[in-house]
Design goal:
The structure holds 2 protein chains of 2 kinds. By secondary structure, chain A is an alpha+beta fold. In chain A, about 30% of the residues lie in helices and about 25% in strands. Chain A contains 15 helices and 24 strands. Chain A has a 7-stranded antiparallel β-sheet with strand order 3-2-4-1-10-9-11. Chain A has a 6-stranded antiparallel β-sheet with strand order 5-6-7-8-12-13, with helices on one face. In chain A, strands 18-17-21-22-23 form a 5-stranded parallel β-sheet, with helices on both faces. In chain A, helix 7 crosses helix 8 and helix 7 crosses helix 14. The longest helix of chain A has 15 residues. The two termini of chain A are about 15 Å apart. By secondary structure, chain B is of the alpha+beta class. Chain B has 15 helices and 27 strands. In chain B, helix 8 runs antiparallel to helix 9. Classes of the chains: A alpha+beta, B alpha+beta.
């Protein structure tokens, strides 16, 4: 998984490196293992990379080494999600492999043909999903795969800057105004003297990643014309309707499941309470690479607030269950703090299959939902009851069929 | 009757066409051989249109019944005054009264002095250091402009809200004030730099004829100043404009219109008091609907807008009545009558506009006029010239493509069709998004938001007010 962003100033009075830095912070939730930031001064593309989060990477101290009117960057769950040379920097969110040969060919083509043709030739050889930003010495090019699997938006600031990013949160953070989603298959070329929007001629039905709406995207983002928070709230309502239970308190697992829990509580009238306090920084536990790290993450993140659960029948709401080990841990924590009953509700459908497009869903034999029914899962994680959101309900909440739900069905669109 | 035009752009082409349609015989004094004006004019005299004496010489030659000055620079140069002294009947503001456009400092001071609706806090500066000191002392969201009208060049609107980006923004502001002075964008003005309060909202233009007392407003128009699609990119003279079926733009209200008209009226009165001269000619208000005032003044034009002229002229049904009124010095009881159709104008510009016009100059353009006509569109020539039957770009905005229809969206589609029949080996660009449903909706949303906040402020008696509380100093109301 990854997040990408970029800024292009039409006027050289701007130095954008710090803008990109804050954009990266605003999409940090999309990947916390590696970060890269590249800036051009029209002469040369200079890059800083680091492991870890944007803030912990100490990029902030080195950022002054980079100055220039255009810059791009990426955060990722594995290393650097891009390819960088001295005259081009490419960052992507998706599942493509960028080889040295392919990038060399692109660099060459960009010298000799129209940008859109060069990029089309480059991406036609890639297989997989991508939202991608290509920064050259004097241009910024954004492109998205024909199915629009990964989110991608464009906006601007005043008369000065054009901005692209995985999510609108990276527009808001620098005060940019959202314009629209970049369309599936589209290429946007941003130059000092023009912006070209080349829409794809072969229009396929889009297949936007459905997991963005239940887990990946920030709730203050709007992607594919839908406000993420609206969907998360609808999911809570659907869970309340489809998987009701008598209880005394609703607890959401921070951070992603809080909106589900809020609207579950509103719908059922069961009061919501704050069930956990966090120690240390915000970590996305489900996307940590190793089991040990996930355990450490959960234990640090989730210290139960005793009075919220003691002697109570608890509806515990989380965003997803992958392997079940984390959830079992959490249920146990609540029981030890005196919860009388623990009913687990999950704001996403079963994950039954890995994602070929770059989202870290584990291999099938590591997924608890593949072999187990809801009742069996309840027994494994030691809960009184357990319930998922139905995929059909999620689709209803989204109001359309233009989504890839491969991790929930095992059926994938062809890229 | 002989109708003489002074000017050279798409605006003048549209005026010439409307004059011809209204039965006048058109003569032109122009500093360029605009192919559109050439085609419309009985005679086109190439002359320095900033030189009053030279234009007067042409006028003595032509003996026009009326002279319409299209270009603001001619007004600033006092061409209308010279022509009037020589006894010609002129539609165009005097040099003194055209100051309302020429100097935004003059305009802002006038609004302040007369306590007008829609004014903004501002300060002008005579040198870079003074402006830089001000930027350091008062960090915040500002618009930084050349004080003088500079054709849209040099305008920066910098929202300085995120504390973590302050340093970058401060740096950009300072470099920009230096650029304004170094590039001499304000030419001869004593206070070349204007820093004013930044506002946001929906922009629109209200163009009016006035005899100095009575005012004839035309239908409202919305221009699109950003160079590129999605309202991104540098400020230009305008990349296209739209108008609705009626006098009020689709996303504005009758009240917005009335307030804007009232501001124009008060400005006409104030100019007379201040300069001792009646404002006689065209006065256009460039407004923004903001949460602070509702209709808020961004700038005034002492002439018709470009491209906004093209939104009003082809649909104006009683141009002759207005011209007659102006010739008699009285436009009381005249209403401008328009065809009840929406319309869209899109500008086609060569790559290089607006920041490096030199590179966009001298490129061949082929126009399939039959196909353009079939699309129901019409072309007005801007910065273009013709040599041996071939059209070439002049570096600035080349063409203005116009179409009318029942809705803005339909008109926009017609224009798009027409533009597909304009070809060049050099890259030409235009804004596909102007007049689309998506952009119209965005304008509606922006306008609704501004109006909501405005109404809340209005209910609390906060219109036009800014209240600050500064620790250690206390409350400051302005």
């Amino acid at each position: 998984m990854a997040g990408i962003c970029g800024i292009y100033a039409f006027d050289e009075i701007w130095n954008v490196s710090r803008f990109v830095y804050y954009q990266l912070m605003a999409i940090q939730s999309r990947g916390q293992e590696g970060v890269g930031l590249s800036v051009t001064d029209y002469e040369k593309v200079r890059t800083l990379t680091a492991s870890g989060t944007v803030q912990e990477s100490l990029l902030s101290e080195k950022i002054n080494e980079l100055t220039g009117p255009a810059g791009v960057g990426g955060v990722s769950t594995r290393g650097i999600n891009g390819y960088v040379t001295e005259d081009v920097a490419i960052y992507y969110d998706g599942s493509v492999e960028l080889t040295a040969d392919a990038v060399d060919a692109l660099r060459n083509d960009l010298e000799t043909m129209k940008e859109e043709d060069a990029v089309r030739r480059f991406t036609s050889k890639l297989s997989g999903a991508y939202s991608m930003i290509i920064l050259t010495k004097d241009k910024m090019i954004a492109t998205r795969d024909a199915l629009g699997i990964k989110p991608f938006v464009i906006g601007g600031v005043g008369f000065d800057l054009a901005v692209v990013a995985s999510e609108t949160s990276a527009l808001d953070v620098i005060g940019a105004e959202f314009s629209r989603d970049i369309e599936p298959g589209e290429i946007v070329v941003i130059d000092k003297h023009y912006i070209d929007e080349i829409k794809s001629e072969q229009r396929k039905d889009p297949a936007h990643c459905i997991f963005e709406y239940v887990y990946l995207a920030r709730i203050d983002s709007k992607i594919n014309e839908i406000d993420v928070h609206e969907i998360r709230k609808k999911i809570g309502v659907l869970l309340a309707k489809e998987k009701p239970v008598e209880a005394d308190v609703v607890i959401g697992v921070p951070e992603t499941a809080i909106p589900f829990a809020m609207s579950y509580s509103n719908k059922t009238g069961i009061p919501i309470d704050i069930g956990f306090m966090r120690t240390g920084r915000h970590l996305r536990t489900a996307i940590r690479p190793t089991q040990m790290e996930r355990m450490i993450g959960v234990q640090l993140k989730l210290n139960p607030v005793k009075t919220a659960v003691r002697g109570k029948r608890v509806v515990l709401i989380d965003d997803s269950v992958v392997r079940g080990t984390t959830m079992r841990n959490i249920v146990n924590l609540l029981r030890k703090r005196g919860a009388k009953e623990v009913h687990v509700r999950i704001g996403s459908p079963q994950l039954v299959s890995p994602c070929p497009f770059g989202t870290e869903v584990p291999a099938t034999d590591e997924l608890i939902a593949v072999e187990n029914t809801e009742d069996e899962i309840a027994r494994i994680i030691d809960a009184d009851s357990f319930g998922y959101l139905h995929l059909e309900d999620l689709k209803k909440a989204l109001g359309g069929e233009c989504y890839c739900s491969g991790c929930m069905t095992g059926t994938y669109p062809e890229v | 009757m002989k109708f003489m035009i002074v000017g050279s752009g798409g605006r003048e082409h549209a005026i010439a066409e409307t004059a011809t349609r209204s039965g006048y015989e058109v003569y032109t004094a122009s500093d360029a051989r605009n192919p559109g004006l050439l085609a419309m004019s009985k005679e086109l005299h190439v002359v320095d249109i900033l030189d009053g004496a030279a234009v007067a010489k042409v006028a003595h030659n032509v003996q026009p019944d009326v002279i319409f000055i299209g270009s603001e620079e001619s007004l600033f140069a006092g061409v209308s005054d010279t022509l009037r002294k020589e006894g010609f009947n002129v539609i165009g503001a005097s040099q003194k009264t055209a100051e309302i456009e020429k100097s935004k400092g003059f305009m802002r001071k006038l609004m302040e002095k007369y306590g007008m609706h829609g004014r903004l806090r501002f300060k002008t500066f005579s040198n870079i250091n003074e402006a830089i000191r001000y930027i350091d002392e008062y960090p915040g969201s500002v618009a930084i402009k050349p004080t003088r009208q500079a054709g849209g060049k040099g305008v920066k609107v910098i929202a300085d809200i995120q504390a973590y980006l302050k340093e970058e923004k401060s740096h950009a502001k300072k470099r920009h004030v230096s650029d304004i002075v170094e590039q001499k964008l304000s030419k001869d003005l004593e206070d070349p730099i204007l820093i004013e309060e930044r506002v946001e909202g929906v922009e629109y233009t209200l163009q009016c004829f006035t005899d100095g007392t009575h005012i004839v407003p035309l239908k409202m128009v919305q221009d699109h100043p950003h160079a590129f699609v999605e309202d991104i990119g540098p400020e230009t003279g305008g990349m296209g404009s739209i108008a609705g079926t009626g006098n009020v733009l689709p996303f504005l209200t009758k009240r917005d219109y009335d307030t804007s008209f009232d501001i124009v009226k008060k400005v006409v009165q104030a100019i007379k008091k201040e300069t001792g001269e009646p404002y006689f000619g065209v006065l256009s208000g460039q407004f923004m609907l903001t949460e602070k005032w509702g209709p808020t003044v961004i700038e005034f034009y002492s002439r018709l807008g470009d491209p906004e002229t093209v939104n009003v002229m082809p649909q104006l049904q009683n141009f002759d009545e207005i011209v007659n009124g102006m010739m008699n010095g009285n436009v009381a009881n005249i209403d401008a009558k328009f065809e009840e159709k929406a319309n869209v104008v899109k500008v086609v510009a060569p790559k290089g506009y607006p920041n490096e016009r030199g590179m966009g100059k001298g490129h061949e353009v082929a126009i399939d006029f039959d196909k353009v006509a079939q699309s129901g569109s019409h072309i007005y020539f801007g910065s273009m010239y013709e040599e041996n039957g071939t059209y070439y770009t002049g570096g600035s905005r080349a063409l203005e493509v116009y179409a009318s229809a029942d809705t803005v969206e339909e008109a926009s589609q017609k224009v798009e069709q027409a533009i597909s029949h304009i070809k060049s080996d050099w890259k030409l660009f235009h804004r596909k998004d102007i007049g689309t449903k998506a952009l119209m909706q965005k304008r509606q949303d922006q306008a609704d938001l501004a109006r909501d906040i405005f109404r809340y402020r209005e209910a609390r008696g906060l219109i036009g007010k800014t209240i600050d509380w500064i620790p250690g100093i206390g409350k400051i109301e302005t």
